[in-house]
Amino acid sequence: MPTISPLSRPSQLSESVSNTIEQWICDGSMAPGVKLPTEKALSTQFGVSRAVVREAISRLKAEGYVHSRQGAGAFVMARPGLESFRLAGRGEAASDDVTADIFELRYIVETAAAALAARRRTRDDLAVMREALVTMGARLACRGDGTQADDDFHIAIAAATGNPMIQRFARFMGNQFYASRVPTWNEEGHAEGRAQDAQDEHQAIFDAIAAGDPMAAHAAARNHLVQAAHRLGMKTDHWDKEIR
Amino acid sequence: MPTISPLSRPSQLSESVSNTIEQWICDGSMAPGVKLPTEKALSTQFGVSRAVVREAISRLKAEGYVHSRQGAGAFVMARPGLESFRLAGRGEAASDDVTADIFELRYIVETAAAALAARRRTRDDLAVMREALVTMGARLACRGDGTQADDDFHIAIAAATGNPMIQRFARFMGNQFYASRVPTWNEEGHAEGRAQDAQDEHQAIFDAIAAGDPMAAHAAARNHLVQAAHRLGMKTDHWDKEIR
DNA sequence: TTATATTTGTCCGTATGTATA
DNA sequence: CTATACATACGGACAAATATA
Protein backbone atom coordinates (compact mmCIF):
# COMPACT_ATOMS: atom_id res chain seq x y z
CA MET A 1 0.00 0.00 0.00
CA PRO A 2 1.29 3.51 -0.80
CA THR A 3 2.40 5.87 1.88
CA ILE A 4 -0.05 8.38 3.22
CA SER A 5 0.67 12.06 2.99
CA PRO A 6 -0.85 14.21 5.71
CA LEU A 7 -3.78 16.32 4.56
CA SER A 8 -3.49 20.09 4.49
CA ARG A 9 -6.85 21.50 5.51
CA PRO A 10 -8.95 21.46 2.34
CA SER A 11 -12.45 22.75 1.87
CA GLN A 12 -13.83 19.25 1.77
CA LEU A 13 -12.18 16.49 3.69
CA SER A 14 -13.89 13.74 1.73
CA GLU A 15 -12.74 15.41 -1.50
CA SER A 16 -9.12 15.22 -0.43
CA VAL A 17 -9.43 11.62 0.63
CA SER A 18 -11.10 10.55 -2.60
CA ASN A 19 -8.61 12.50 -4.71
CA THR A 20 -5.72 10.85 -2.91
CA ILE A 21 -7.13 7.36 -3.39
CA GLU A 22 -7.99 8.17 -7.01
CA GLN A 23 -4.36 9.15 -7.46
CA TRP A 24 -3.21 5.84 -6.02
CA ILE A 25 -5.36 4.04 -8.53
CA CYS A 26 -4.38 6.15 -11.53
CA ASP A 27 -0.64 5.99 -10.94
CA GLY A 28 -0.78 2.25 -10.44
CA SER A 29 -0.05 2.22 -6.73
CA MET A 30 -3.26 0.25 -6.34
CA ALA A 31 -3.76 -2.16 -9.20
CA PRO A 32 -7.18 -3.32 -10.39
CA GLY A 33 -8.67 -6.00 -8.22
CA VAL A 34 -6.74 -5.23 -5.07
CA LYS A 35 -8.61 -4.55 -1.90
CA LEU A 36 -8.56 -1.10 -0.40
CA PRO A 37 -7.66 -0.70 3.25
CA THR A 38 -10.66 -1.00 5.50
CA GLU A 39 -12.69 2.09 6.23
CA LYS A 40 -11.46 2.00 9.79
CA ALA A 41 -7.85 1.79 8.68
CA LEU A 42 -8.28 4.65 6.20
CA SER A 43 -10.01 6.81 8.77
CA THR A 44 -7.19 6.41 11.26
CA GLN A 45 -4.46 6.82 8.66
CA PHE A 46 -6.02 9.96 7.16
CA GLY A 47 -6.97 11.23 10.57
CA VAL A 48 -10.62 11.67 9.68
CA SER A 49 -13.82 10.03 10.76
CA ARG A 50 -15.22 6.95 9.12
CA ALA A 51 -18.12 8.94 7.69
CA VAL A 52 -15.69 11.06 5.70
CA VAL A 53 -13.99 7.95 4.34
CA ARG A 54 -17.37 6.53 3.40
CA GLU A 55 -18.29 9.66 1.46
CA ALA A 56 -14.97 9.57 -0.33
CA ILE A 57 -15.46 5.94 -1.30
CA SER A 58 -19.02 6.77 -2.30
CA ARG A 59 -17.66 9.24 -4.82
CA LEU A 60 -15.12 6.76 -6.12
CA LYS A 61 -17.92 4.24 -6.58
CA ALA A 62 -19.97 6.79 -8.49
CA GLU A 63 -16.98 7.51 -10.73
CA GLY A 64 -16.46 3.82 -11.40
CA TYR A 65 -13.08 3.52 -9.69
CA VAL A 66 -14.02 1.06 -6.98
CA HIS A 67 -16.88 -1.16 -5.96
CA SER A 68 -17.61 -2.49 -2.52
CA ARG A 69 -19.30 -5.56 -1.13
CA GLN A 70 -20.70 -5.65 2.34
CA GLY A 71 -18.63 -7.80 4.59
CA ALA A 72 -15.82 -8.12 2.10
CA GLY A 73 -14.40 -4.68 1.46
CA ALA A 74 -13.83 -2.20 -1.34
CA PHE A 75 -11.91 -3.23 -4.45
CA VAL A 76 -10.36 -1.37 -7.36
CA MET A 77 -12.40 -2.03 -10.49
CA ALA A 78 -10.97 -3.83 -13.51
CA ARG A 79 -10.73 -0.73 -15.70
CA PRO A 80 -11.09 2.10 -13.21
CA GLY A 81 -12.65 5.38 -14.22
CA LEU A 82 -13.84 4.20 -17.60
CA GLU A 83 -17.53 3.96 -16.73
CA SER A 84 -18.04 7.58 -17.61
CA PHE A 85 -16.31 10.06 -19.89
CA ARG A 86 -15.51 13.53 -18.62
CA LEU A 87 -13.66 16.19 -20.49
CA ALA A 88 -12.29 18.62 -17.94
CA GLY A 89 -11.36 17.99 -14.40
CA ARG A 90 -14.04 19.08 -11.99
CA GLY A 91 -14.41 22.80 -11.79
CA GLU A 92 -11.14 24.15 -13.07
CA ALA A 93 -11.30 26.11 -16.29
CA ALA A 94 -9.78 24.48 -19.35
CA SER A 95 -6.81 25.98 -21.11
CA ASP A 96 -6.99 27.11 -24.72
CA ASP A 97 -5.26 24.01 -25.95
CA VAL A 98 -7.63 21.76 -24.07
CA THR A 99 -10.58 23.73 -25.38
CA ALA A 100 -9.32 23.28 -28.92
CA ASP A 101 -8.95 19.56 -28.37
CA ILE A 102 -12.48 19.29 -27.04
CA PHE A 103 -13.74 21.33 -29.96
CA GLU A 104 -12.10 18.98 -32.41
CA LEU A 105 -13.88 16.03 -30.84
CA ARG A 106 -17.13 17.96 -31.10
CA TYR A 107 -16.30 18.74 -34.71
CA ILE A 108 -15.83 15.08 -35.55
CA VAL A 109 -19.10 13.96 -34.04
CA GLU A 110 -21.31 16.83 -35.12
CA THR A 111 -20.22 16.85 -38.75
CA ALA A 112 -20.81 13.12 -38.93
CA ALA A 113 -24.14 13.60 -37.20
CA ALA A 114 -25.22 16.17 -39.75
CA ALA A 115 -24.42 13.77 -42.57
CA LEU A 116 -26.34 10.95 -40.89
CA ALA A 117 -29.24 13.27 -40.14
CA ALA A 118 -29.51 14.13 -43.82
CA ARG A 119 -30.15 10.46 -44.54
CA ARG A 120 -32.34 9.47 -41.64
CA ARG A 121 -34.27 12.59 -40.58
CA THR A 122 -38.02 12.23 -40.24
CA ARG A 123 -40.55 15.00 -40.73
CA ASP A 124 -40.80 15.29 -36.96
CA ASP A 125 -37.04 15.76 -36.74
CA LEU A 126 -37.20 18.54 -39.30
CA ALA A 127 -40.05 20.18 -37.39
CA VAL A 128 -37.99 20.27 -34.20
CA MET A 129 -35.02 21.70 -36.05
CA ARG A 130 -37.20 24.28 -37.76
CA GLU A 131 -38.67 25.34 -34.45
CA ALA A 132 -35.23 25.98 -32.99
CA LEU A 133 -34.33 27.87 -36.13
CA VAL A 134 -37.44 30.04 -35.90
CA THR A 135 -36.76 30.75 -32.25
CA MET A 136 -33.23 31.80 -33.08
CA GLY A 137 -34.62 34.03 -35.81
CA ALA A 138 -36.90 35.71 -33.32
CA ARG A 139 -34.04 36.25 -30.87
CA LEU A 140 -32.04 37.66 -33.75
CA ALA A 141 -34.80 40.14 -34.61
CA CYS A 142 -35.09 41.45 -31.06
CA ARG A 143 -31.35 41.22 -30.42
CA GLY A 144 -32.05 38.79 -27.61
CA ASP A 145 -30.30 35.74 -26.23
CA GLY A 146 -30.45 32.77 -28.56
CA THR A 147 -27.96 30.50 -26.82
CA GLN A 148 -30.64 28.09 -25.67
CA ALA A 149 -32.18 27.80 -29.14
CA ASP A 150 -28.67 27.46 -30.57
CA ASP A 151 -28.04 24.55 -28.24
CA ASP A 152 -31.44 23.06 -29.09
CA PHE A 153 -30.70 23.23 -32.80
CA HIS A 154 -27.48 21.31 -32.51
CA ILE A 155 -29.12 18.70 -30.31
CA ALA A 156 -31.99 18.42 -32.79
CA ILE A 157 -29.52 17.57 -35.53
CA ALA A 158 -28.01 14.85 -33.38
CA ALA A 159 -31.48 13.57 -32.55
CA ALA A 160 -32.28 13.37 -36.26
CA THR A 161 -29.61 10.69 -36.64
CA GLY A 162 -32.04 8.39 -34.86
CA ASN A 163 -29.18 7.38 -32.57
CA PRO A 164 -29.90 8.37 -28.97
CA MET A 165 -26.25 7.93 -28.04
CA ILE A 166 -25.21 10.55 -30.57
CA GLN A 167 -27.91 12.82 -29.23
CA ARG A 168 -26.75 12.37 -25.66
CA PHE A 169 -23.18 13.00 -26.71
CA ALA A 170 -24.16 16.18 -28.52
CA ARG A 171 -26.05 17.31 -25.44
CA PHE A 172 -22.98 16.56 -23.37
CA MET A 173 -20.64 18.42 -25.71
CA GLY A 174 -23.06 21.32 -26.00
CA ASN A 175 -22.92 21.74 -22.26
CA GLN A 176 -19.16 22.10 -22.41
CA PHE A 177 -19.48 24.97 -24.88
CA TYR A 178 -22.60 26.54 -23.47
CA ALA A 179 -20.73 29.50 -22.03
CA SER A 180 -18.75 29.88 -25.24
CA ARG A 181 -21.87 30.72 -27.24
CA VAL A 182 -22.40 33.89 -25.25
CA PRO A 183 -20.08 36.11 -27.35
CA THR A 184 -22.19 35.22 -30.36
CA TRP A 185 -25.49 36.22 -28.82
CA ASN A 186 -24.65 39.12 -26.53
CA GLU A 187 -25.06 42.76 -27.60
CA GLU A 188 -21.63 42.92 -29.14
CA GLY A 189 -22.31 39.71 -31.05
CA HIS A 190 -25.49 41.20 -32.48
CA ALA A 191 -23.78 44.47 -33.31
CA GLU A 192 -20.89 42.83 -35.13
CA GLY A 193 -23.11 40.43 -37.01
CA ARG A 194 -21.91 37.25 -35.36
CA ALA A 195 -25.43 36.18 -34.44
CA GLN A 196 -26.59 36.75 -38.02
CA ASP A 197 -23.65 34.79 -39.38
CA ALA A 198 -24.38 31.88 -37.07
CA GLN A 199 -28.01 31.93 -38.12
CA ASP A 200 -27.10 31.83 -41.80
CA GLU A 201 -24.81 28.89 -41.18
CA HIS A 202 -27.54 27.10 -39.26
CA GLN A 203 -29.94 27.68 -42.13
CA ALA A 204 -27.48 26.12 -44.56
CA ILE A 205 -27.18 23.01 -42.39
CA PHE A 206 -30.93 22.75 -42.10
CA ASP A 207 -31.44 23.11 -45.85
CA ALA A 208 -28.95 20.36 -46.60
CA ILE A 209 -30.49 18.00 -44.07
CA ALA A 210 -34.00 18.79 -45.31
CA ALA A 211 -32.83 18.15 -48.86
CA GLY A 212 -31.43 14.80 -47.77
CA ASP A 213 -27.94 15.65 -49.00
CA PRO A 214 -25.36 14.13 -46.61
CA MET A 215 -22.33 15.63 -48.33
CA ALA A 216 -23.79 19.12 -48.25
CA ALA A 217 -24.90 18.67 -44.65
CA HIS A 218 -21.42 17.56 -43.68
CA ALA A 219 -19.88 20.52 -45.46
CA ALA A 220 -22.35 22.98 -43.96
CA ALA A 221 -21.78 21.65 -40.46
CA ARG A 222 -18.05 21.77 -41.08
CA ASN A 223 -18.25 25.38 -42.16
CA HIS A 224 -20.39 26.34 -39.18
CA LEU A 225 -18.05 24.75 -36.68
CA VAL A 226 -14.97 26.28 -38.29
CA GLN A 227 -16.60 29.70 -38.20
CA ALA A 228 -17.74 29.11 -34.62
CA ALA A 229 -14.17 28.28 -33.71
CA HIS A 230 -13.08 31.55 -35.30
CA ARG A 231 -15.72 33.44 -33.33
CA LEU A 232 -14.19 31.93 -30.20
CA GLY A 233 -10.78 33.15 -31.26
CA MET A 234 -9.50 29.65 -31.90
CA LYS A 235 -7.01 28.90 -34.61
CA THR A 236 -8.18 26.35 -37.14
CA ASP A 237 -5.41 26.69 -39.68
CA HIS A 238 -4.40 23.10 -39.27
CA TRP A 239 -8.02 22.03 -39.67
CA ASP A 240 -8.41 23.81 -42.97
CA LYS A 241 -5.66 21.69 -44.37
CA GLU A 242 -5.97 18.56 -42.35
CA ILE A 243 -9.61 17.79 -41.88
CA ARG A 244 -11.29 16.90 -45.09
CA MET B 1 -41.70 19.10 -4.42
CA PRO B 2 -42.68 15.72 -5.82
CA THR B 3 -44.39 13.12 -3.76
CA ILE B 4 -42.29 10.44 -2.13
CA SER B 5 -42.84 6.80 -2.91
CA PRO B 6 -41.99 4.38 -0.13
CA LEU B 7 -38.85 2.40 -0.69
CA SER B 8 -39.03 -1.33 -1.25
CA ARG B 9 -35.97 -2.87 0.38
CA PRO B 10 -33.19 -2.49 -2.19
CA SER B 11 -29.67 -3.72 -1.89
CA GLN B 12 -28.38 -0.24 -1.21
CA LEU B 13 -30.53 2.34 0.51
CA SER B 14 -28.40 5.25 -0.67
CA GLU B 15 -28.67 3.93 -4.22
CA SER B 16 -32.44 4.05 -4.10
CA VAL B 17 -32.47 7.51 -2.61
CA SER B 18 -30.06 8.93 -5.18
CA ASN B 19 -31.90 7.22 -8.04
CA THR B 20 -35.19 8.68 -6.86
CA ILE B 21 -33.80 12.19 -6.58
CA GLU B 22 -32.04 11.80 -9.93
CA GLN B 23 -35.42 10.89 -11.39
CA TRP B 24 -36.97 14.00 -9.92
CA ILE B 25 -34.30 16.09 -11.60
CA CYS B 26 -34.45 14.33 -14.96
CA ASP B 27 -38.23 14.45 -15.32
CA GLY B 28 -38.32 18.10 -14.38
CA SER B 29 -39.95 17.69 -10.99
CA MET B 30 -37.00 19.59 -9.60
CA ALA B 31 -35.86 22.34 -11.93
CA PRO B 32 -32.28 23.59 -12.10
CA GLY B 33 -31.42 26.03 -9.34
CA VAL B 34 -34.07 24.92 -6.89
CA LYS B 35 -33.02 23.86 -3.44
CA LEU B 36 -33.35 20.26 -2.40
CA PRO B 37 -35.11 19.46 0.85
CA THR B 38 -32.76 19.47 3.80
CA GLU B 39 -30.93 16.32 4.68
CA LYS B 40 -33.04 15.99 7.77
CA ALA B 41 -36.25 16.36 5.80
CA LEU B 42 -35.15 13.82 3.21
CA SER B 43 -34.08 11.37 5.87
CA THR B 44 -37.45 11.50 7.60
CA GLN B 45 -39.42 11.40 4.36
CA PHE B 46 -37.47 8.45 2.97
CA GLY B 47 -37.38 6.81 6.35
CA VAL B 48 -33.61 6.48 6.38
CA SER B 49 -30.82 8.01 8.39
CA ARG B 50 -29.04 11.19 7.48
CA ALA B 51 -25.90 9.24 6.69
CA VAL B 52 -27.73 7.45 3.90
CA VAL B 53 -29.06 10.72 2.54
CA ARG B 54 -25.59 12.20 2.67
CA GLU B 55 -24.14 9.32 0.67
CA ALA B 56 -26.91 9.62 -1.87
CA ILE B 57 -26.29 13.34 -2.28
CA SER B 58 -22.57 12.62 -2.43
CA ARG B 59 -23.18 10.45 -5.46
CA LEU B 60 -25.40 13.08 -7.08
CA LYS B 61 -22.63 15.62 -6.57
CA ALA B 62 -20.11 13.29 -8.15
CA GLU B 63 -22.42 12.81 -11.15
CA GLY B 64 -22.87 16.56 -11.54
CA TYR B 65 -26.57 16.69 -10.71
CA VAL B 66 -26.38 18.83 -7.59
CA HIS B 67 -23.94 20.93 -5.65
CA SER B 68 -24.12 21.83 -2.00
CA ARG B 69 -22.91 24.71 0.10
CA GLN B 70 -22.43 24.40 3.80
CA GLY B 71 -25.01 26.39 5.66
CA ALA B 72 -27.14 26.97 2.59
CA GLY B 73 -28.27 23.62 1.24
CA ALA B 74 -28.06 21.44 -1.84
CA PHE B 75 -29.16 22.83 -5.20
CA VAL B 76 -29.89 21.31 -8.59
CA MET B 77 -27.15 22.30 -11.02
CA ALA B 78 -27.85 24.43 -14.09
CA ARG B 79 -27.45 21.59 -16.59
CA PRO B 80 -27.70 18.51 -14.41
CA GLY B 81 -25.90 15.33 -15.36
CA LEU B 82 -23.93 16.88 -18.19
CA GLU B 83 -20.58 16.96 -16.44
CA SER B 84 -19.85 13.44 -17.53
CA PHE B 85 -20.97 11.24 -20.39
CA ARG B 86 -22.00 7.68 -19.72
CA LEU B 87 -23.35 5.25 -22.23
CA ALA B 88 -25.25 2.56 -20.41
CA GLY B 89 -27.08 2.87 -17.17
CA ARG B 90 -25.07 1.52 -14.28
CA GLY B 91 -24.75 -2.22 -14.36
CA GLU B 92 -27.60 -3.37 -16.51
CA ALA B 93 -26.64 -5.02 -19.78
CA ALA B 94 -27.34 -3.05 -22.93
CA SER B 95 -29.80 -4.31 -25.52
CA ASP B 96 -28.71 -5.09 -29.06
CA ASP B 97 -30.13 -1.82 -30.34
CA VAL B 98 -28.31 0.17 -27.72
CA THR B 99 -25.09 -1.70 -28.47
CA ALA B 100 -25.46 -0.87 -32.15
CA ASP B 101 -26.00 2.79 -31.31
CA ILE B 102 -22.90 2.85 -29.15
CA PHE B 103 -20.94 1.11 -31.86
CA GLU B 104 -21.99 3.71 -34.39
CA LEU B 105 -20.66 6.47 -32.15
CA ARG B 106 -17.42 4.54 -31.81
CA TYR B 107 -17.35 4.14 -35.58
CA ILE B 108 -17.64 7.86 -36.13
CA VAL B 109 -14.85 8.80 -33.77
CA GLU B 110 -12.42 6.02 -34.57
CA THR B 111 -12.60 6.38 -38.34
CA ALA B 112 -12.03 10.10 -38.00
CA ALA B 113 -9.21 9.41 -35.56
CA ALA B 114 -7.52 7.09 -38.04
CA ALA B 115 -7.64 9.78 -40.71
CA LEU B 116 -6.22 12.38 -38.34
CA ALA B 117 -3.55 9.96 -37.16
CA ALA B 118 -2.39 9.47 -40.73
CA ARG B 119 -1.67 13.20 -40.89
CA ARG B 120 -0.24 13.85 -37.48
CA ARG B 121 1.43 10.64 -36.30
CA THR B 122 4.98 10.89 -35.04
CA ARG B 123 7.58 8.16 -35.17
CA ASP B 124 6.91 7.48 -31.50
CA ASP B 125 3.23 7.05 -32.25
CA LEU B 126 4.04 4.54 -34.95
CA ALA B 127 6.34 2.68 -32.60
CA VAL B 128 3.58 2.29 -30.02
CA MET B 129 1.16 1.09 -32.66
CA ARG B 130 3.72 -1.34 -34.05
CA GLU B 131 4.37 -2.74 -30.60
CA ALA B 132 0.68 -3.48 -30.09
CA LEU B 133 0.57 -5.03 -33.53
CA VAL B 134 3.56 -7.25 -32.76
CA THR B 135 2.03 -8.33 -29.47
CA MET B 136 -1.19 -9.24 -31.25
CA GLY B 137 0.84 -11.22 -33.77
CA ALA B 138 2.48 -13.15 -30.96
CA ARG B 139 -0.88 -13.89 -29.36
CA LEU B 140 -2.11 -14.99 -32.75
CA ALA B 141 0.80 -17.39 -33.16
CA CYS B 142 0.25 -19.07 -29.80
CA ARG B 143 -3.55 -18.86 -30.04
CA GLY B 144 -3.57 -16.72 -26.93
CA ASP B 145 -5.65 -13.81 -25.72
CA GLY B 146 -4.98 -10.60 -27.64
CA THR B 147 -7.82 -8.48 -26.32
CA GLN B 148 -5.51 -6.24 -24.33
CA ALA B 149 -3.19 -5.64 -27.28
CA ASP B 150 -6.25 -5.12 -29.47
CA ASP B 151 -7.45 -2.44 -27.09
CA ASP B 152 -3.98 -0.92 -26.94
CA PHE B 153 -3.78 -0.70 -30.72
CA HIS B 154 -7.01 1.23 -31.02
CA ILE B 155 -5.97 3.56 -28.24
CA ALA B 156 -2.58 4.06 -29.90
CA ILE B 157 -4.35 5.21 -33.07
CA ALA B 158 -6.35 7.72 -31.08
CA ALA B 159 -3.20 8.86 -29.32
CA ALA B 160 -1.53 9.43 -32.69
CA THR B 161 -4.06 12.18 -33.44
CA GLY B 162 -2.17 14.26 -30.90
CA ASN B 163 -5.49 15.06 -29.28
CA PRO B 164 -5.65 13.69 -25.72
CA MET B 165 -9.44 14.08 -25.68
CA ILE B 166 -9.80 11.74 -28.62
CA GLN B 167 -7.46 9.33 -26.90
CA ARG B 168 -9.46 9.41 -23.71
CA PHE B 169 -12.67 8.95 -25.63
CA ALA B 170 -11.22 5.95 -27.45
CA ARG B 171 -10.12 4.49 -24.15
CA PHE B 172 -13.60 5.07 -22.80
CA MET B 173 -15.29 3.48 -25.79
CA GLY B 174 -12.83 0.59 -25.79
CA ASN B 175 -13.88 -0.20 -22.25
CA GLN B 176 -17.49 -0.48 -23.35
CA PHE B 177 -16.57 -3.08 -25.94
CA TYR B 178 -13.86 -4.84 -24.00
CA ALA B 179 -15.98 -7.90 -23.34
CA SER B 180 -17.16 -7.92 -26.95
CA ARG B 181 -13.63 -8.59 -28.20
CA VAL B 182 -13.55 -11.96 -26.50
CA PRO B 183 -15.29 -13.93 -29.31
CA THR B 184 -12.52 -12.75 -31.62
CA TRP B 185 -9.67 -13.95 -29.42
CA ASN B 186 -11.01 -17.08 -27.70
CA GLU B 187 -10.33 -20.58 -29.02
CA GLU B 188 -13.29 -20.53 -31.33
CA GLY B 189 -12.20 -17.17 -32.69
CA HIS B 190 -8.75 -18.53 -33.46
CA ALA B 191 -10.17 -21.69 -35.01
CA GLU B 192 -12.55 -19.84 -37.27
CA GLY B 193 -9.97 -17.30 -38.33
CA ARG B 194 -11.56 -14.28 -36.70
CA ALA B 195 -8.38 -13.35 -34.88
CA GLN B 196 -6.38 -13.57 -38.07
CA ASP B 197 -8.94 -11.45 -39.91
CA ALA B 198 -8.81 -8.79 -37.22
CA GLN B 199 -5.03 -8.79 -37.36
CA ASP B 200 -5.03 -8.32 -41.13
CA GLU B 201 -7.43 -5.41 -40.78
CA HIS B 202 -5.26 -3.86 -38.10
CA GLN B 203 -2.23 -4.18 -40.35
CA ALA B 204 -4.06 -2.35 -43.13
CA ILE B 205 -4.90 0.51 -40.80
CA PHE B 206 -1.31 0.71 -39.59
CA ASP B 207 0.08 0.71 -43.13
CA ALA B 208 -2.20 3.55 -44.16
CA ILE B 209 -1.34 5.64 -41.12
CA ALA B 210 2.37 4.92 -41.55
CA ALA B 211 2.09 5.95 -45.19
CA GLY B 212 0.42 9.19 -44.15
CA ASP B 213 -2.66 8.52 -46.25
CA PRO B 214 -5.74 9.81 -44.42
CA MET B 215 -8.25 8.53 -46.94
CA ALA B 216 -6.81 5.04 -46.88
CA ALA B 217 -6.60 5.10 -43.09
CA HIS B 218 -10.22 6.16 -42.89
CA ALA B 219 -11.27 3.42 -45.27
CA ALA B 220 -9.21 0.77 -43.48
CA ALA B 221 -10.61 1.76 -40.11
CA ARG B 222 -14.09 1.75 -41.61
CA ASN B 223 -13.58 -1.74 -42.98
CA HIS B 224 -12.22 -3.02 -39.68
CA LEU B 225 -15.13 -1.66 -37.67
CA VAL B 226 -17.70 -2.99 -40.12
CA GLN B 227 -16.08 -6.42 -39.97
CA ALA B 228 -15.86 -6.20 -36.19
CA ALA B 229 -19.56 -5.44 -36.10
CA HIS B 230 -20.19 -8.51 -38.21
CA ARG B 231 -18.09 -10.61 -35.86
CA LEU B 232 -20.35 -9.41 -33.07
CA GLY B 233 -23.38 -10.46 -35.04
CA MET B 234 -24.52 -6.90 -35.61
CA LYS B 235 -26.30 -5.84 -38.76
CA THR B 236 -24.59 -3.09 -40.67
CA ASP B 237 -26.65 -3.14 -43.83
CA HIS B 238 -27.73 0.43 -43.33
CA TRP B 239 -24.14 1.46 -42.72
CA ASP B 240 -22.95 0.00 -45.99
CA LYS B 241 -25.27 2.31 -47.81
CA GLU B 242 -25.48 5.22 -45.48
CA ILE B 243 -22.07 5.87 -44.06
CA ARG B 244 -19.70 6.92 -46.67
C1' DT C 1 -21.15 -27.64 8.39
C1' DT C 2 -20.57 -24.63 12.20
C1' DA C 3 -18.68 -20.97 14.64
C1' DT C 4 -16.17 -16.70 14.94
C1' DA C 5 -13.96 -12.58 13.52
C1' DT C 6 -13.90 -9.00 10.02
C1' DT C 7 -15.98 -5.49 7.18
C1' DT C 8 -19.44 -2.78 5.21
C1' DG C 9 -24.16 -0.80 5.85
C1' DT C 10 -27.01 1.79 8.79
C1' DC C 11 -28.48 4.58 12.71
C1' DC C 12 -28.17 7.96 16.54
C1' DG C 13 -26.41 11.92 19.07
C1' DT C 14 -23.51 15.90 19.23
C1' DA C 15 -20.47 19.70 17.99
C1' DT C 16 -18.82 23.23 14.64
C1' DG C 17 -18.47 26.38 10.76
C1' DT C 18 -21.25 28.81 7.42
C1' DA C 19 -25.12 31.17 5.27
C1' DT C 20 -29.24 33.73 5.68
C1' DA C 21 -33.13 36.41 7.68
C1' DC D 1 -25.47 42.04 15.43
C1' DT D 2 -28.19 38.23 16.76
C1' DA D 3 -30.54 34.19 16.00
C1' DT D 4 -31.87 30.42 13.23
C1' DA D 5 -31.19 26.93 9.76
C1' DC D 6 -28.11 24.00 7.51
C1' DA D 7 -24.25 21.26 5.84
C1' DT D 8 -20.02 19.31 7.57
C1' DA D 9 -17.67 16.44 10.68
C1' DC D 10 -16.98 13.46 14.76
C1' DG D 11 -17.77 9.26 17.81
C1' DG D 12 -20.10 5.29 19.19
C1' DA D 13 -23.17 1.57 18.33
C1' DC D 14 -25.71 -2.33 16.12
C1' DA D 15 -27.12 -5.16 12.06
C1' DA D 16 -26.06 -7.73 7.97
C1' DA D 17 -23.05 -9.81 4.80
C1' DT D 18 -18.74 -11.95 4.12
C1' DA D 19 -14.54 -14.46 4.93
C1' DT D 20 -12.01 -17.72 7.53
C1' DA D 21 -10.82 -21.31 10.70
Please give the order of strands in the largest beta sheet of chain A.
1-2
Residue share in β-strands of chain A: under 5%
| Overall pLDDT of chain A | 87
| Count of helix runs of chain A | 12
Please name the CATH architecture of the largest domain in chain A: Up-down Bundle
Return Rg of chain A in Å: 23 Å
Could you characterize what this model shows?
The structure is a homodimer. Chain A is mainly alpha-helical. Chain A has helices at about 15-25, 40-45, 50-65, 95-120, 125-140, 145-160, 165-175, 180-185, 185-190, 195-210, 215-230, 235-240, and strands at about 65-70, 75, 85. Chain A has a two-stranded antiparallel sheet. In chain A, a hairpin with a 3-residue loop joins strand 1 (about 65-70) and strand 2. In chain A, helix 4 runs antiparallel to helix 11 and helix 5 (about 125-140) runs antiparallel to helix 6 (about 145-160). The N and C termini of chain A lie far apart (about 50 Å). In chain A, about 40% of the residues are buried. Mean pLDDT of chain A is about 85; it is low at about 1-10. Chains A and B meet through helix 3, strand 3, helix 4 and helix 7 of A and helix 3, strand 3, helix 4 and helix 7 of B. Chain B binds a DNA duplex (21 and 21 nucleotides) through helix 3.
Entry keywords:
homodimer, mainly alpha, Arc Repressor Mutant, subunit A, Four Helix Bundle (Hemerythrin (Met), subunit A), two-stranded antiparallel sheet, 12 helices, 64% helix, DNA-binding
